[in-house]
């Protein structure tokens, strides 16, 4: 199935975020996890922690930039997806939600953004 230009740009942003997180010592658990209630761009391991990562990419920081584009509705879908993913674990690992915001060529990693 052909990918749109927007999908290709999104995948490039995820590739850049993944490389950034790997250089910081995180390991990939799963990419593009989807379930009925939502989706997660990257699921990473940071030591004992399972990290659910939302990747956002914008051309610039205008209008608040990439991180500001994560709405409360999106946060809810991320939470549902994380809860669904965690059903495969008999004992829950410590978890957190991170954001990798890409504004132009600038990458910013925001840790533990949701409670």
UniProtKB/TrEMBL annotation:
InterPro entries: Restrct_endonuc-II-like, tRNA_endonuc-like_dom_sf, UPF0102_YraN-like. It holds the Pfam family UPF0102. The keyword ATP-binding does not apply. Keywords: Endonuclease, Hydrolase, Nuclease. The keyword Membrane does not apply. One of its GO terms (molecular function) is nucleic acid binding. It comes from the Bacteria. Belongs to the UPF0102 family. PANTHER family: UPF0102 PROTEIN YRAN. This is UPF0102 protein GO485_15475.
């Amino acid at each position: 199935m052909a990918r749109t230009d927007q999908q290709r740009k999104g995948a490039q942003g995820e590739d850049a975020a993944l490389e950034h997180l790997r250089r910081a010592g995180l390991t990939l658990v799963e990419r593009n996890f989807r379930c009925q209630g939502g989706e997660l761009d990257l699921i990473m391991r940071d030591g004992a922690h399972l990290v659910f990562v939302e990747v956002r990419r914008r051309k610039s920081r205008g209008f608040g930039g990439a991180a500001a584009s994560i709405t409360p509705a999106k946060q809810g879908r991320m939470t549902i997806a994380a809860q669904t993913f965690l059903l495969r674990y008999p004992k829950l690992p410590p978890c957190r939600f991170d954001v990798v915001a890409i504004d132009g060529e600038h990458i910013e990693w925001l840790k533990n953004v949701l409670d």
